[in-house]
Specification:
This protein has 500 residues and is an alpha/beta fold. It folds into 2 domains: 4-251 and 459-478, 3-Layer(aba) Sandwich (Aldehyde Dehydrogenase, Chain A, domain 1); 255-439, Aldehyde Dehydrogenase, Chain A, domain 2. The protein has 15 helices and 22 strands. The protein has helices spanning 42-59, 64-80, 82-93, 97-115, 156-167, 181-193, 210-217, 230-242, 265-277, 294-310, 329-344, 380-383, 399-406, 422-431, 468-472; strands at residues 4-6, 8-10, 13-15, 22-26, 33-38, 124-127, 133-141, 144-148, 171-175, 201-203, 223-227, 246-250, 255-259, 287-293, 348-351, 370-373, 390-396, 411-412, 414-418, 436-439, 455-456, 474-482. The strands form 6 sheets. It has a 7-stranded mixed β-sheet, with helices on both faces. A 5-stranded parallel β-sheet has the order 10-9-8-11-12, with helices on both faces. α8 links the parallel β11 and β12 (246-250). α3 crosses α4 (97-115), α4 runs parallel beside α5 (156-167) and α9 crosses α10. The protein starts with a strand and ends in an 18-residue tail after the last strand.
Length: 500
């Protein structure tokens, strides 16, 4: 059977890169090659950006409600193909099938939600301070958007960026992670089938590095929307900052679940296991810290260790699998490297901690679900984003200490508190330095109708999803119409003069 070959999409055509080079798209659970993908060059990036620039003038004038109709059609196609998309996602990046279906559903939800903005995008009409003068504001698209997306949510996150960009009249150059080219191609195929005009969305496949840098600094790219590591986000921001380009960056996290002494421990346990080990811990919102009040810590640790040891590793398409592989050998090595670091600093590996070396699991990039105990707040495992199935338990003596420990990282994306005390819950909601706060739920599972993003080094202040997404992909234009027939000088002539 011939291997699927994935191509770029530029100016409405599926094309190979100018070099003719390709790379392999592999299943991280067993190393099988599931596709080959064209490996783009900077010349391909230039063609994609030029195509987007040409398409911009007509697309920005395309009525926004009609743009919305295209997105509604795309959402319907996604819904029809949900099972096939989820299966390909599991093969490509490893998450278990149920989670892949959730990823696709989030893309469907975002597409439908943003399609409705084709008939909204509200501005303001406000009173002018001078007679016979009219004042309003409206949204204006930026132009060409570079959407640079990660591999951990290879369908949902691209829709977070592409859909609001398109509904506002921008055109897009889409650069997905090289680990997940297939889902990127499928998304573009769907939008093409839904009737998106040529050039409005362009796709370039290949690794980052020089390719990403070239896209970021291209003079015809007006805004860069990036989700990924903090180091890469800082690099992109540095390049773009010198060129005064707009950047929306969604970066790392070191999220924590706080369990107070009055919590429902079993409910908290469910939230911890799901948040720490779902997607093999490869979520920017994953619970890589558990901050437990000493009154419940021993009970919680015993149960958490027991649950972690029972989680079954395997291929994400197998119904018996609880936790799939991490995405690559490099990711596996990174997770494994933190085990000796943790022990050297005085932490104890209470569950997991190993890379499987026997049987079918040895063919893939697996790491056992791991619970670290005796962890102190300033240890590296409590401060650095590991991005794997590892969580660190830190004991505290009060809600105030819990909040202090929670906030004691450079990140500020998601946090959670388990408590039956409404006063503690509200104090936590007020004091947690995170962009997302959960009460009696885990740290993962954000919904698309509210802003998504974090504080501090988690990003640069922008938010994705919800109405806030419109602020990323548009600029405000204020408009004044003076129909007095004479010169009126704002502030200078605003002395209560009468209208003619």
């Amino acid at each position: 059977m011939a291997t699927t070959h994935l191509k770029n999409y530029i100016d409405g055509r599926w094309v190979d890169s100018s070099s003719g080079d390709a790379f392999e798209d592999t299943d991280p659970a067993n190393g099988d090659i599931i596709a080959t993908a064209t490996k783009s060059t900077t010349a391909d990036v230039d063609k994609a950006v030029e195509s987007a620039r040409r398409a911009y003038d007509s697309w920005r004038l395309f009525p926004a409600p009609k743009r919305g109709e295209i997105l509604y059609r795309a959402g319907a196609i996604m819904l029809d193909r949900k099972d096939d998309l989820a299966r390909e996602m599991t093969l490509e990046m490893g998450k278990v099938l149920a989670e892949s279906k959730g990823d696709v559903q989030e893309g469907i939800d975002m597409t439908y939600y943003i399609a409705g903005e084709g008939r909204r995008q509200f501005g303001d009409v406000v009173p002018a301070e001078l007679p016979s003068k009219w004042a309003m504001s409206m949204r204006n698209p930026h132009g060409v958007i570079a959407a640079i997306t990660p591999w951990n949510f290879p369908f949902a996150i691209p829709t977070w960026k592409i859909m609001p960009a398109l509904i506002l009249g921008n055109t897009v150059v889409f650069k997905p992670a090289s680990y997940t080219p297939m889902l990127a191609v499928r998304l573009v195929e769907i939008l093409e089938e839904a009737g998106l005009p040529k050039g409005v969305l362009n796709l370039v496949l290949g690794p980052g590095g020089a390719l990403g840098d070239h896209l970021v600094q291209h003079p015809s790219v007006d805004l860069i929307s990036f989700t990924g590591s903090s180091d890469t986000g800082a690099h992109i921001s540095e390049i773009a900052g010198r060129l005064l380009k707009r950047v929306s960056a969604e970066l790392g996290g070191k999220n924590a679940i706080v369990v107070l002494d009055d919590a429902d421990v079993d409910l908290a346990l469910d939230g911890i296991v799901w948040s720490a080990f779902g997607t093999s811990g490869q979520r920017c919102t994953a619970a890589s810290r558990v901050i437990a009040h000493h009154g419940v810590a021993n009970d919680l640790i015993d149960k958490l260790v027991g649950r972690a040891k029972k989680l079954r590793l395997g291929h994400g398409l197998e119904s018996t699998t609880d936790v799939g592989p991490v995405v690559s050998k490099a990711a596996q090595d990174k997770v494994a490297s933190y085990m000796p670091i943790a022990e050297k600093e005085g932490a104890t590996i209470a569950a997991g901690g190993r890379v499987p070396t026997e049987g079918a699991l040895a063919k893939g990039f697996f790491h056992e679900p791991t619970v670290l105990v005796d962890v102190k707040p300033n240890m590296r495992v409590a401060q650095e984003e590991i991005f794997g199935p590892v969580t660190s338990v830190i004991e505290v003596k009060s809600v105030d200490e819990a909040v202090k420990v929670l906030n004691n990282t450079k990140y500020g994306l998601s946090s959670s508190v388990y408590t039956r005390n409404i006063n503690s819950a509200f104090r936590f909601m007020r004091d947690a330095e995170t962009g997302i706060v959960y009460v009696n739920a885990g740290t993962i599972g954000a919904e698309i109708q509210l802003p998504f993003g974090g504080m501090k080094s988690t990003g640069n202040g922008h938010r994705e999803a919800g109405r806030a997404a419109l602020d990323v992909y548009s600029e405000w234009k204020s408009i004044y119409v003076d129909y007095s027939g004479k010169l009126q000088r704002a502030q200078m002539d605003a002395d209560g003069g009468k209208a003619p």
